[in-house]
Amino acid sequence: YQAKMDFALKLGYAGDQIQAVLNKLGADALINDVLAELVRLGNKSESEGQSTASSTTSTLVPRGPCPKEIASPELSLEDEVVDNSDNLRPIVIDGSNVAMSHGNKEGFSCRGIQLAVDWFLEKGHKDITVFVPAWRKEQSRPDAPITDQEILRKLEKEKILVFTPSRRVQGRRVVCYDDRFIVKLAFDSDGIIVSNDNYRDLQNEKPEWKKFIEERLLMYSFVNDKFMPPDDPLGRHGPSLENFLRKRPVIPEHKKQPCPYGKKCTYGHKCKYYHPERANQPQRSVADELRISAKL
């Protein structure tokens, strides 16, 4: 009797349950019969507990359309933070890059800038800045065609678009480097750069800018009039687009299959499995890897 009692206690069953089963089956019962009866009692008590819990909750739930509150705490928390613009990073858009991309490299399409701004506004972003050189306010010319130019004035009135300085000196146009404005503002505000430009020259200026551009550059594509950023901005092992745009991630990342070789894996960034030790490392190019190994 005592041996059966100790064995069942080690498995995590309650003492009163074990005593009830042994009194029912007798001290000479086989251990398998005792365990089967314990399992049956456990399943019965669980089903009773669930039925009582559902009956109590059904009496407490008020009438009215509030499915989000009843659903699950994770979903309600996610919806709450998505709508909260304080958790979204500032957006800095390279206006020239976006407009030329939408114009298929043949013209400066201001409508492309509007499409990108609208996409982020729909996501709940309020801190959006677009940089465009001031000379784009000039009249369209055959060598530099501009379409939908009134959009620039409209966005400027809404305090979304900022013109970078330019002037004429003895008939020659002197322009400031608008890429430096873009990277500097995004770095200072801890935001996101929206561009298909890699800013190689600015990466070489400051090491902190190089790391920032590698981790905060959001590339995109235009499918006709649809602005489409990638769902995995930093690669397959990086954060999702939603968490990339947030200051604090809300939706947990999907569990990825860890690499069976672990730290001994020799595939590097080409490995299709997840490496937790490489999660915080920026995606370096092959040339950068060779330079670092040469220094070591």
What do these coordinates show?
- One of its GO terms (molecular function) is mRNA binding.
- InterPro entries: Rege-1_UBA-like (IPR040546), RNase_Zc3h12_NYN (IPR021869), ZC3H12/N4BP1_RNase_Reg (IPR051101), Znf_CCCH (IPR000571).
- Keywords: Endonuclease, Hydrolase, Magnesium, Metal-binding, Nuclease, Zinc, Zinc-finger.
- Its cofactor is Mg(2+).
- The chain is of the alpha/beta class.
- The chain folds into 3 domains: about 1-40; about 85-245, Rossmann fold, CATH 3.40.50.11980; about 260-295, no CATH class.
- It has 13 helices and 11 strands.
- It has helices at about 1-10, 15-25, 30-60, 65-70, 75-80, 95-100, 110-120, 150-155, 180-190, 200-205, 205-215, 240-245, 285-295, and strands spanning about 90-95, 110, 130-135, 145, 160-165, 165-170, 170-175, 190-195, 215-220, 220-225, 225-230.
- It has a 5-stranded parallel beta sheet, sandwiched between helices.
- The longest helix is centred in the first third of the chain and has 30 residues, at about 30-60.
- The termini are far apart.
What is the class of the largest domain in the CATH system? Answer: Alpha Beta
- N-to-C terminal Cα separation, in Å? 68 Å
Strand order of the largest sheet: 5-3-1-8-9
Please report the number of helical segments.
13
Mean pLDDT: 79
CATH topology of the largest domain: Rossmann fold
Assign a percent range to the helix content: 40-55%
Percent of residues in beta strands? 5-15%
Low-confidence stretches: 53-83
Gross CATH architecture of the largest domain: 3-Layer(aba) Sandwich
What's the gyration radius in Å? 30 Å
Shape: elongated
| N-to-C series of helices and strands | HHHHHEHEHEEHEEEHEHHEEEHH
